[in-house]
From TrEMBL:
Pathway this chain belongs to: Amino-acid biosynthesis; L-arginine biosynthesis; N(2)-acetyl-L-ornithine from L-glutamate: step 4/4
Gene, per the UniProt record: argD
GO CC, one annotated term: cytoplasm
Aminoacyl-tRNA synthetase found in the keyword field: no
GO MF terms, alphabetically ordered: identical protein binding; N2-acetyl-L-ornithine:2-oxoglutarate 5-aminotransferase activity; pyridoxal phosphate binding
Keyword Zinc: no
Keywords: Amino-acid biosynthesis, Aminotransferase, Arginine biosynthesis, Cytoplasm, Pyridoxal phosphate, Transferase
Subcellular location: Cytoplasm
Pfam families: Aminotran_3
Organism whose genome encodes this protein: Paracoccus sphaerophysae
Residues with PTM N6-(pyridoxal phosphate)lysine: 243
Stated name of the protein: Acetylornithine aminotransferase
NCBIfam families given in the database record: argD, PRK01278.1
PANTHER family: AMINOTRANSFERASE CLASS III (PTHR11986), SUCCINYLORNITHINE TRANSAMINASE (PTHR11986:SF113)
Amino acid sequence: MIDAVLPTYNRAPIAFERGEGAWAIATDGTRYLDLGAGIAVNALGHANPDLVAALTEQAGRIWHVSNLYQIPQQQRLAEMLVDKTFADTVFVTNSGTEAAELAIKMVRHYWSDRGQPERIEILTFEGAFHGRSTGAIAAAGSEKMVKSFGPLMPGFRTLPWGDMEALKAAMSDRTAAVMFEPVQGEGGIRPMADADMRAIRAMCDQTGALMVLDEVQCGMGRTGRLFAHEWAGVTPDIMMVAKGIGGGFPLGAVLATEAAAAGMVAGTHGSTYGGNPLACAVGSRVMEIIAEDGFLAEVNRKGALLRQKLEGLVAAHPEVFEGVRGSGLMLGLKCRVAPAELVKAGYAEHILTVPAADDVVRLLPPLNITDEEIGEAVARLDRAAGRLA
Ligand SMILES: Cc1ncc(COP(=O)(O)O)c(C=O)c1O
């Protein structure tokens, strides 16, 4: 008999009832060190007192207001994002998938406005993940995600990951946009080289194609800069954000330049819940904390510390691990065993990690994890690896 919850996930037999910073506490009282952070969502840890205060204070005032009215909390969040990034304007969503959908719509509207409605081809890379809506699975194009859901939305072409020659050959006056994650998350913590990001920007400038970045997983301080593309010194035309920006409350956004968004006038897009006061009160607080002096420097320092310890772990277990990759606190352990096996061994050692494609186990701890917790995490991973030897 089918479960009351549609069984689209293979769930571990653990339920959590509480959280404290980098720790998730199960119903049986077991404390798990959480290096998954809800897949890069709990950016400031569980039950962060500042975020709890922002949420409860707003909850006592007003929860929901339609976008038919002014929403000062949404305005504030949008202005902070505009202030800190390339963007001139922001649409607030509830998730990364919704952000991806709007980004795709914005690209189509842009070319339609320019008298080229047939210019719909968006180039993407293998291993991409943009969500599970019909548009987002068409964009990613992987067999696993699209099987049995055809016919797919047209207009996407998937190229080998990071293959600049293939991209150069594919770019033409039919290319509407190039869309990718600066660091692939689900694809296995695969960073796009800075030089390649700059090359893509140059190709987009030459052909007029828009550069669309998905920073749902790698953004909001995760790589040690507010947004990962900053490392390459380029800016996109459109960017999707979600996960960490809400610190655990459902929140996403599309950021865009004025030129890319100019056609998106009243009536072209909307959302009942997108930009609601609760989500935006929390999101604004997350932004304030990540923007505090020294916060990102600490992410870089802790990222380097974790990486250094993981290199030691890899060296100690060559039969389990092949290497470490990623940047900041978005790190991947390339495994010689099935990633799911390591994740499972981690449960036995009371540490949470997340499997990804390309034989990688992801480590995406809260950005404010302590040095001591980093040491403890690697000790637990060491014991977990020992179980697989
Ligand atoms: C890079 C990227 N884009 C989009 C999404 C979809 O976001 P959501 O699950 O919030 O809809 C995800 C989720 O894992 C993601 O990692």
